[in-house]
Design a protein that fits this description.
4% helix; ten-stranded mixed sheet; mainly beta; Jelly Rolls; 19 strands
Length: 315
């Protein structure tokens, strides 16, 4: 697939293989989707990151492309974290061009999967929605997020990161949470300079009941503004005056470039292990993150602001 044909912007026509449908309520038009209706993961839409790097967060899993860690089951994508030791590349593919990192190996006590649309589909502005069911337990860290396709403004986090959904330790005892159990989800932006001069801003909200059910997680992304939603209801907003990119004169930078989508289930790592009961509870594995569908909507008007904040969502 030609990468340029997959990068959709608000000005682009809905053709060339995009999953165009009639405009939805609120002026949105479906531009790309995966309903996971086949028998195997569509490799024309998804690639896998395969490494034991730990995501730069000291996570405890090796990511694989094995069906044991990611497969289509009953019309859903199921990402499975397993308690099993594995040895693999110690660094992500993007860093293996350095001689000392090319063959380095690491061993981790868990396996899982991280699916990406990198090199296959990326978008600038629009609405991204994912209907998913999240795992519970101390140390679980499911995420739905986006990274820049080309690193135009520099390495992380100068070119940005959009976290549509993160949740850690769901269902675990929590003294500061409503009902006494962890039920919070997070939506966050990472920006600023290259690490360690990076910055972030985010918000948390309670995950609507049922905690162990499916919910629709999304963002509405326009130039200079990003709104986070859960089940179609906005819960957080960030505007360009709250973010920046070192050295750039573009007012909406870095969130004015194509970003690709990532779905993953991490085990442990700083955010998960520093919260809740601390560390990782190794009981109850394997644990699953289930994704019913992924949909990327584009606005049928002249700008995202011409469309509603919710649009048409399947249940």
């Amino acid at each position: 697939m030609i990468r340029a044909a997959a990068i959709l912007t608000l000005a682009a026509a809905f053709g060339g293989g995009a999953a165009a449908r009639e405009p939805a309520d609120g002026g949105w038009r479906l531009a790309w989707s995966d309903e996971f209706g086949g028998t195997a993961i569509d490799r024309d839409k998804w690639d896998f990151d395969v490494d034991c790097w730990g995501g730069g967060n000291n996570e405890r899993q090796c990511y694989t492309d094995r069906p044991a860690n990611a497969a289509i089951k009953d019309g859903k994508l199921v990402i499975t974290a397993r308690k099993e030791a594995m040895t693999g590349p110690a660094f992500p593919l993007s860093q293996r061009g350095e001689a000392e990192k090319a063959t380095a190996q690491a061993t981790k006590p868990f396996t899982s999967a991280r699916l990406v649309t990198r090199g296959k589909a990326a978008w600038t502005y629009g609405k991204i929605e994912v209907r998913a069911k999240l795992p519970q337990g101390q140390g679980t860290w499911p995420a739905i997020w986006m990274l820049p396709e080309d690193g135009h403004y520099g390495s992380w986090a100068a070119s940005g990161e959009i976290d549509i959904l993160e949740a850690v330790n769901l269902g675990v005892r929590c003294e500061t949470c409503a009902g006494g159990i962890e039920n919070r989800i997070l939506g966050t932006l990472h920006f600023g300079g290259q690490w360690p001069a990076n910055k972030h801003k985010g918000d948390e909200t309670a995950l609507p009941a049922p905690l162990d059910g499916f919910h629709v997680f999304g963002i509405v992304w326009q130039k200079g503004k990003i709104v986070w939603t859960v089940d179609g209801k906005p819960y957080a907003t960030r505007v360009a005056s709250e973010w920046s990119t070192s050295g750039s004169s573009e007012p909406a930078a870095p969130f004015d470039r194509p970003f690709h989508l990532i779905l993953n289930l991490a085990v442990g790592g700083g955010l998960a292990e520093d919260r809740g009961l601390k560390g990782v509870d190794e009981n109850g594995y394997p644990k699953n993150m289930e994704i019913d569908w992924v949909r990327v909507w584009q606005c049928d008007g002249n700008a995202v602001s011409d469309c509603s904040s919710t649009g048409d969502q399947a249940k």
